[in-house]
Specification:
Rossmann fold
């Protein structure tokens, strides 16, 4: 069965990415249905295997969804980058994207997490660019 065009596009873009950053709210102690559905479409696709992932949790009280999301991604054989995973307390704060990025407490934590994910993505990209068996060929020379 051919996947719907939107799913084909999701798979294509996921495959092109060298890493993913996922931030999601928690609904009824779980991952929102739309995110879970998107991941379900990717579960049988090679685009997520060994992909570096950063998880951002916008609420320290949203522990159920965060843990469930981490488990789903582990099952999908992704590589969770611990240094790129963080929990920040945004609940009840009226901050737009610029205010979050400019917050003196949040900014260094966000930067460190993004730097860690970027480093993992560069490593992943380098591994993808190396043809299978190239390392063995170099050793044999």
């Amino acid at each position: 069965m051919t996947a719907p065009p939107a799913v084909q596009a999701l798979r294509r873009e996921t495959l092109r990415a060298d890493g993913l950053l996922i931030s999601s709210p928690e609904y009824a102690h779980g991952v929102p249905g739309s995110l879970k559905n998107a991941l379900d479409w990717l579960v049988s696709d090679a685009s997520m295997i060994y992909k570096p992932i950063g998880l951002w949790n916008p609420s320290p009280h949203a522990t159920h969804a965060h843990a469930a999301l981490a488990e789903t991604l582990r099952t999908m054989s992704t590589e969770r980058v611990e240094e790129a995973c963080l929990v920040v307390s945004l609940a009840g704060r009226s901050l737009d994207a610029a205010a979050i990025a400019g917050d003196p407490e949040l900014r260094p934590r966000l930067r460190a997490a993004l730097d860690a994910l970027a480093a993992a993505a560069r490593e992943y990209s380098a591994r993808r660019a190396t043809p299978p068996g190239a390392a063995a060929l170099e050793i044999a020379r």
